Amino acid sequence: MKETPKDKGRYAYEGLERIFHERSRLGILSGLAAHAEGLLFNDLKQLVALTDGNLSRQIQILQEEGLIEVEKKFVNNRPQTRCLMTDAGKKRFWEYINELERVVHDAAKSEKHAGKARPATA
Amino acid sequence: MKETPKDKGRYAYEGLERIFHERSRLGILSGLAAHAEGLLFNDLKQLVALTDGNLSRQIQILQEEGLIEVEKKFVNNRPQTRCLMTDAGKKRFWEYINELERVVHDAAKSEKHAGKARPATA
Q: Of A30, A40, A57, A106, whose CB count within 10 A is highest?
């Protein structure tokens, strides 16, 4: 193989922290990253297509990790929940995304390299 | 928010199939994608930094899903195990990588959008 022993862990991708990598949490954080003003619970629920229960549970996990904050207030006597990313959350999310970019970049290199050998139907 | 109800599931990322998304399997497949000729068990183990037991278990899962194939033979009276991606495995892996690229692209858009509002220390 091309890699040498110093390439130990070359494909370990240790930066893919579980807290971000889990698909539903990745969706929640991607949605919040796109909305600096935060998102109401029901809008976020639509965007990530999760059930109330699952979204609540993931929000709690992200909040306990300090990645998002949750504002609760009453609007027209109805409770309203808004979620926002914290500054620490944004910083760690970009770090995770950088590692994800490395995975995509590695794959793109492999595809280019394998290009000629791949059958047209693959 | 900018999205409308038709954006239901905009951040659900349903293409992030668990079989590929799990970090250790993602590493194994990324390593194999970069080596069209396949990789010997011990070389693969180095590259993904997994234990023998964990790597064996993940290889079995990937093999049962038809994503990789495993060749066993004897070289100088010693057993040798080589893993290779199948054509179906390559095809599905590129589909997964395309979805991953969408996550990175979404985040890049968010970062650009938020650029001016972010403090220099963030």
A: A30
DSSP tag of B118: S
pLDDT at A6: 57
Kindly report the backbone phi and psi dihedral angles of residue A111, in degrees, each rounded to the nearest multiple of 5, phi listed first.
Answer: -65, -40
By Cβ distance, the residue of B8, B16, B33 closest to A46 is B8
Interchain contact A109–B (C-beta under 8 A): yes
List of chain A residues whose C-beta atoms are within 8 Å of the C-beta of residue B35: 1-2
Give the pTM: 0.88
Is the distance from CB of A69 to CB of A84 less than 8 angstroms? yes
**What's the confidence (pLDDT) of residue B72?**
95
CA distance B22 to B24: 6
Chain B nearest CA to A77, separation (Å): 22
The minimal CB distance from B49 to the residues A12, A49, A109 is found for: A12
The reply to whether A34 touches chain B by the CB within 8 Å rule is yes
Rounded to 5 degrees, φ, ψ at B68 are -135, 160
A75 near B CB under 8 A? no
CA distance A101 to A110: 14
Burial of B52 (0-12, 13-18, 19+ CB in 10 A): exposed
Q: How confident is the model at residue B7 (pLDDT cuts 50, 70, 90)?
A: confident
> What ipTM was estimated for this complex?
0.88
Instruction: Say if the Cβ atoms of B30 and A100 lie within 8 Å.
Output: no
Instruction: Determine, for residues A33 and B91 on separate chains, whether the beta-carbon distance falls below 8 Å.
Output: no
